[in-house]
Write a structure and sequence with these properties.
alpha/beta; 46% helix; single chain; TIM Barrel; 329 residues; two-stranded parallel sheet
Length: 329
């Protein structure tokens, strides 16, 4: 049975713990606490701690944190403490750095530095805790193949690209002589609606989140990522204008209007990053993908659409109802 994880931003540590408790009761296997834009959101590790103390079964960790804002020893020592608190239920999702880094004027880590960083962490890392890396490019996939327990292939719902990137990661793992299998995840931004008439408004509401995903995937390079050639100059120019002051926020803001004069690019990015529709439509699209790509897990990022926490929990419940068949209950 495939694992299912949900990801939330941490605007309130107490609410993040309640969210994790609800996710556990609904049968999800993991919760990820976003580590992003500290001027907008709370720190991830206190939220992870609160969630682990409030739950009994579900795994909880940062998704994703970075090697820039903390020394490797801080991550590793925190992992040991949390593994003692909740044995076998902590994992660490990591990438080179995005919102938490760029929003405060820092730069993402270089891949060579990041690989050394992970290897240093491993020297004191608790055996039960997984290191889960997220990448969107070929070199990142190869790095993850060598050093990760698990990998999110963050290229949206492009099946051809998922297959290609998984192949690179597994080939790198084999070349490095790593015997344990690499567990593969994807992370489509997913919102389930009740009726067909709600699909297009929801797509429009989520466009700035799709653009955030594109900025993560295409910031370093668009080469070998299956991006139409005629769109590359537009994407490069407009994604450079992405404003981290609005990261992780839906609704009307400057990021939502990045491609308003290029609707073909806007629709392309939404189609690639966003899974939205009725429960039947969303489940069918994922099952079609899973017929082609062997996955260990699927992350469902759940960015709050309104200021009301009850709406956030309602979105979580809608996900559970839609994907119950693949969750085994």
């Amino acid at each position: 049975m495939i694992e299912t994880g949900v990801i939330t931003t941490v605007a309130s540590t107490q609410r993040a713990a309640v969210y994790a408790e609800a996710a556990e009761q609904m049968g999800f296997s993991r919760v990820g606490m976003a580590d992003t834009a500290p001027k907008l959101f709370h720190a991830t590790y206190p939220a992870v701690t609160a969630a682990l103390m409030r739950t009994n079964r579900i795994s909880v960790g940062p998704y994703v944190t970075n090697p820039v804002t903390r020394h490797w020893s801080v991550h590793a020592a925190t992992a040991r403490a949390l593994d003692e608190l909740a044995p076998g239920r902590f994992y660490a999702g990591m990438a080179t750095g995005d919102g938490a880094v760029n929003s405060v004027g820092l730069k993402p880590a270089k891949l060579e530095y990041f690989e050394n960083y992970i290897n240093e962490m491993r020297t004191i890392w608790p055996e039960q805790s997984k290191i889960h890396l997220a990448f969107s490019g070929p070199k990142g996939m190869e790095l993850a193949g060598r050093v990760a327990d698990e990998l999110t292939v963050a290229v949206g719902l492009d099946v051809e690209m998922i297959q290609k990137m998984v192949g690179l990661a597994k080939a790198s793992r084999q070349s490095a002589g790593v015997k344990t299998p690499l567990r593969i995840w994807i992370n489509p931004l997913t919102y389930v609606v009740a009726t067909e008439s709600e699909v297009e408004p929801m797509r429009k509401a989520l466009r700035n989140i799709a653009f955030s995903s594109a900025r993560f995937s295409f910031d370093a390079s668009m080469e070998d990522k299956n991006v139409p050639d005629h769109m590359k100059p537009i994407l490069k120019k407009r994604l450079a204008l992405y404003d981290f002051a609005y990261k992780g926020q839906v609704g009307d803001n400057p990021n939502a209007r990045l491609f308003e004069d290029h609707p073909e690019v806007e629709n392309y990015l939404i189609d690639r990053a966003v899974l939205t529709g009725t429960a039947e439509q969303c489940l069918a699209r994922l099952e079609q993908l899973m017929d082609v790509v062997e996955l260990s897990g699927i992350w469902f990022p759940t960015i709050p659409r309104t200021p009301h926490f009850s709406d956030h929990l309602s979105d979580l419940a809608a996900l559970e109802r839609a994907f119950r068949p693949m969750m085994g209950h």
